[in-house]
Design brief:
single chain, alpha/beta, Udp-n-acetylmuramoylalanyl-d-glutamate--2,6- Diaminopimelate Ligase, Chain: A, domain 1, six-stranded mixed sheet, about 30% helix, globular
Amino acid sequence: MSLSAKTYRWACQDLLDGFDAVCLASDMRDCEVTGIVSDSRQISPGDMFVMIQGFMTHGMCYIREALARGAKAILCDFDDSSDGRHESFVDHEEIHIPIFRVRNLKKKVGMLANKFFSSPSSDLSVIGVTGTNGKSSCAFFIAQLFLSLKKRCGISGTLGVGEYPDMEETGYTTPDVISVHRNLAWFRDQGIQDVVMEVSSHALDQGRVQGVEFETAIFTNLSHDHQDYHASLEDYFKSKSRLFLEYPAKNHIINIDDDFGRRLYDDLHEHALSFSCRGRERSDGIVADLYARRINSCINGDDFEFSFRGVTRTVKTNLIGYVSMSNTAASLLAMIAEGYPFEDLVERVTCLQPPPGRLEQVNVDTGDNRPIVMIDFAHTPAALQAVLKDLRPICRGKLWCVFGCGGERDQDKRPIMGGIAEQYADRLVITSDNPRGENPEDIIEDILKGISDRESCHVIPDRIEAVRYAISHAHEDDIVLLAGKGHETYQIVKEGERIPLNERKVAKEALYEWR
């Protein structure tokens, strides 16, 4: 879903001016539309239905639904591969609204949406965050920093869209391009000036942020993920790089601890600010603009030291681990680039809270010592390794890892994640995590291929039972990591059905019942 912007009105002739539109039927160029939509399920009376090729089907398949919902005009695509399917509905007796055709429409929808909503991003300061891991945390940290400065902030990402901290779930890291511009228009019309949005590789590859003007772009890191979509890791990197090479952001914030970030920095260094958590000056001669290090670690939060251009500050935080420190550094540097002083910002880090499902501790009030349960969204090899490494030094007993891998997604990472879990955890419980249309046992078998000592693993396909088992068998000094679900409160099974699964609730019940 997307936010509901105020009503905008355009005569089709004016809206399509400059897009080389050809009218195919019902020549009513002065027809007025009050919205543009590419998802027939979201159409309201008066909208223009933009029919383009989706990931699975063409919008043409939903023309009857669009008409039934009150579409007032249709915009369809036309390219060199057109097979004439559009003409099949032009003379349909049920269609009495204007139909316009635009060559290569899919590549122009973003600019059309930008025009329809009167260039909303040009009136905002938009911060875009991309990377394999850390996007949601950076977005939340930046929004919290703005709030601490008594400034309103819009946010759009995996955890939802809205004015922080009130967000509505969308189901996407980055929604379709029309929704992106509609959301930006809503922020502007609400008087919000600052917006932070997560930008996925899929979104960059598919043009979902076309027409957006970014003030600042952040690169967190890049590692193995989405190999079911991208042809290679290099192709994945090229998609991420588009945010920096194809969009004229004023500020570029780059993690130079990451090998791909280092490559990006080499291309952008005259127009980029860098951060590092491995020391200010690297062996390759690059001097980071901001660097950070962990001073002290404990389950209630680490002490971080940040240095920026000769000024060093140490702060007590509510955050745990290297990953949190790196995401905090990225957020600080982005805010500095936006014009806020380091000395003021760094003191506010003390109040930052992790986003839901990002190294989130499940708390119960029992008055005695019980295992510590942490929930994290880690669903990539790098993320799983990072969170286990962060928990290891603060774990006084055994470190448990309960995880699975998503169905109908990158299969190559399954044995890799199995090997990582075996290397860094003491106890493993392999279970299900959004199996979708795949057999959960087949996914688990792929994971087990990366584990040398299968006898040491507990295989429990039912995730609820897996969580209960791990917590009930853990000792009071143990830490139980529930990896993969994070903020999600459902399990995706066949045909996209979402079965309710509240991991926090299950974990709390298991902790209360713990012997």
